[in-house]
Write a structure and sequence with these properties.
Its main location: cytoplasm. By secondary structure, the chain is of the alpha/beta class. It contains twelve helices and 13 strands. The chain has helices at 12-22, 42-45, 62-68, 80-84, 87-92, 107-114, 132-141, 150-164, 194-197, 211-223, 256-267, 316-330; strands at 2-7, 27-32, 71-74, 94-97, 128-129, 144-146, 174-179, 202-203, 230-235, 242-249, 273-275, 293-300, 305-312. The mean pLDDT is 97. The structure holds NADPH dihydro-nicotinamide-adenine-dinucleotide phosphate (NDP) and N-acetyl-L-glutamyl 5-phosphate (X2W).
């Protein structure tokens, strides 16, 4: 049995980790970490866990936690994981960080886009970017896993095969993405209040969202040269879900079947990636509550562009589900253990 500790178990990503790990046959949660609810019953913070979770929330004593757990998930604000990691901790326990602290390899880029000083840059090189479908073999050996961001997971996986095969002109790539409000976390923020979000839609982080360098870096590795792109996120009035619509010029005259063959080359054996049939385009409802990534595309003959569309649940494949997928790989379990989550509808 893998003993899991969650720092930030009371946030939305942490709560989703709790939900998924409760159904995992080879893992048990031994530490419900919190900053604001220490000694309070976890189920009093999330009443959906009434009579399911009996534990109380605990502080983030890393030494005690590292002794009690085999894996620590950090589902905490940017900068916290980097301030906790050290060689002693990593020699005892694996860390799966849901924040961005170890995703970006260039520390100056991280510090510029996040506006904070990185507290343990010496571990950035070692950290594995935990996009399982792409970095599976490295994740299996990792001590420190950087779980990708929600927009980034969706955006990268949707374009990856075409970037890798040189089928799209990366200089023309534009990503337009929408997220449900849970993507912003449980903390109280005015832009996320009901009256601000309901019956409303807004772009934010225009030309400045911190997921931009993460997407650029990973797609750069795929195509073999630096990538600069436009990424525009939008907040939409729903709880969960991300839809990314991506536009790029094709580099060759290709048919639907040619492009489909490229997607299949990379994804046909991927359990969590569903390539939709021709003429069918992803909807967030079709992946809600699940670890799936749905992908569809259309070639626009008139403009010479391809339009790629991807959908995920931000809290599952975009956070907790992917973190558990990473844990499974890192501990030699079957990759989908505990992740047989059937999408809910409506
Ligand atoms: N929400 C999403 O869809 C996604 C989130 N992420 C990332 O996951 C992380 C958590 O996000 P999310 O769950 O949305 O955020 P929330 O605001 O919902 O939760 C934050 C959590 O971190 C804890 N926390 C806050 N400050 C500290 C601190 N100084 N020390 C220890 N714990 C602290 C909070 O504890 P308490 O409440 O007890 O004070 C809470 O449990 C972030 O890095 C986020 O970027 C990644 C992908 C998707
Ligand atoms: C709707 C919303 O606010 N979403 C968050 C992204 C959540 C996420 O994945 O963030 P991390 O990269 O920090 O893990 C945002 O735009 O900041």
């Amino acid at each position: 049995m893998i003993r899991a500790g969650i720092i930030g178990s009371t946030g939305y990503a942490g709560a989703e980790l709790v939900r998924i790990l409760m159904g995992h046959k080879d893992a048990e949660i031994v530490w419900y970490g919190s900053r604001s609810y220490i000694d309070k019953k976890y189920a009093s913070v999330y009443q959906n866990m009434f009579q399911i979770v009996d534990a109380v929330c605990m502080d983030d004593n890393m030494d005690e936690l590292a002794a009690a757990a085999d894996v620590i998930f950090t589902a905490t604000p940017q900068g916290l994981c980097a301030s906790l990691v050290n060689e002693d901790i990593l020699s005892k326990v694996k860390i799966i960080d849901l924040s961005a602290d170890f995703r970006i390899k260039d520390v100056a880029t991280y510090e510029k886009w996040y506006g904070i000083e990185h507290k343990s840059p010496e571990f950035i090189k070692e950290a594995v970017y935990g996009l399982c479908e792409i970095n599976r073999e490295d994740v299996k050996k990792a001590r420190l896993i950087a779980n990708p961001g929600c927009y980034t997971t969706c955006s990268i996986l949707t374009a990856y095969p075409l970037a890798k095969e040189g089928l799209i002109d990366m200089d023309t790539l534009i990503i337009d993405a929408k997220s449900g409000t849970s993507g912003a976390g449980r903390g109280v923020k005015v832009p996320n209040l009901f009256c601000e979000v309901n019956e409303n839609m807004k772009a934010y982080g225009i030309a400045s969202h911190r997921h931009t360098p993460e997407i650029e870096e990973q797609l750069g590795y795929a195509c073999g040269h630096p990538v600069v792109l436009n990424f525009t996120p939008h907040l939409v009035p729903m709880n969960r879900g991300i839809l990314a619509t991506e536009y790029a010029k094709l580099t060759k005259d290709v048919s639907y079947e040619d492009v489909k063959a490229v997607y299949e080359k990379y994804y046909k054996d991927e359990k969590f990636i569903r390539l939709l049939d021709e003429g069918v385009y992803p909807e967030t409802k079709w992946v809600e509550g699940s670890n799936y990534v749905d992908i569809g595309f259309k070639i626009d003959e008139r403009t010479g562009r391809i339009i790629m569309i991807g959908a995920i649940d931000n809290l599952v494949k975009g956070a907790a589900g992917q973190a558990v997928q990473n844990m499974n790989l890192a501990f030699g379990l079957t990759e989908d253990t505990g992740l047989d989550l059937v999408p809910m509808f409506p």
